[in-house]
Automatic annotation (TrEMBL):
<dbReference type="InterPro" id="IPR018750">
    <property type="entry name" value="DUF2306_membrane"/>
</dbReference>
<keyword id="KW-0812">Transmembrane</keyword>
<feature type="transmembrane region" description="Helical">
    <location>
        <begin position="36"/>
        <end position="55"/>
    </location>
</feature>
<keyword id="KW-0472">Membrane</keyword>
<dbReference type="Pfam" id="PF10067">
    <property type="entry name" value="DUF2306"/>
</dbReference>
<feature type="transmembrane region" description="Helical">
    <location>
        <begin position="6"/>
        <end position="24"/>
    </location>
</feature>
<protein>
    <submittedName>
        <fullName>Putative membrane protein</fullName>
    </submittedName>
</protein>
<feature type="transmembrane region" description="Helical">
    <location>
        <begin position="94"/>
        <end position="113"/>
    </location>
</feature>
<feature type="transmembrane region" description="Helical">
    <location>
        <begin position="61"/>
        <end position="82"/>
    </location>
</feature>
<feature type="transmembrane region" description="Helical">
    <location>
        <begin position="125"/>
        <end position="144"/>
    </location>
</feature>
<keyword id="KW-1133">Transmembrane helix</keyword>
Length: 165
């Protein structure tokens, strides 16, 4: 169970990383693509934060500092959603940027420690690591492309329900 949880946790985090960066560095905000990619990103981030509570290998079965980051992430995501719904773009941007930077920090921590799963997998199974990297890139591309298709569709005028008389 823990191995499956770890794999899905890592997969969600690895897809959330480029999607969050795309959102932050993309020039256009608030369009259909931004909304779709943002919703997928928030869903991934929620899964990453919540699934982390089932992963306790770092601290002999106890919670660690990474679990504090998960709590901060849950609060930050909630604040970001709440603030954008209230029309406060600046607070939304700050909360979501903070969540993404926290994810970047967790990624660095996961890669920097040699005994952790990511570096061990990359060294022991380089072909599998490359395949995983390509899967992450493809998944991110599909989500971004779908967002673009929805943005293009939203830009089209709505078709009338019946032809005019």
């Amino acid at each position: 169970m823990t191995d499956d949880l770890l794999v899905t946790h890592l997969a969600a985090a690895l897809v959330a990383l480029p999607l969050g960066g795309y959102q932050l560095f993309r020039r256009t905000k608030g369009d259909a693509r931004h909304v779709l990619v943002g919703r997928v990103w928030v869903g991934l981030m929620l899964y990453v934060a919540l699934s982390s509570f089932g992963l306790r290998d770092l601290n002999n079965g106890s919670f660690s500092l990474l679990h504090v980051l998960s709590i901060v992430t849950l609060v930050s995501l909630s604040l970001g959603i709440w603030r954008i719904r209230a029309g406060d773009v600046r607070a939304h941007r700050g909360a979501m940027t903070g969540s993404w930077l926290g994810l970047c920090g967790a990624f660095v921590a996961a890669v920097a420690v040699p005994d952790r799963t990511l570096p061990t997998f990359a060294l022991d199974h380089p072909t599998g690591a490359l395949a995983a990297l390509l899967a992450v890139a493809a998944t991110s591309w599909v989500v971004i492309r779908l967002g673009g298709l929805l943005a293009d569709r939203a830009a089209l005028p709505a078709a009338p329900l019946r032809p005019p008389d």
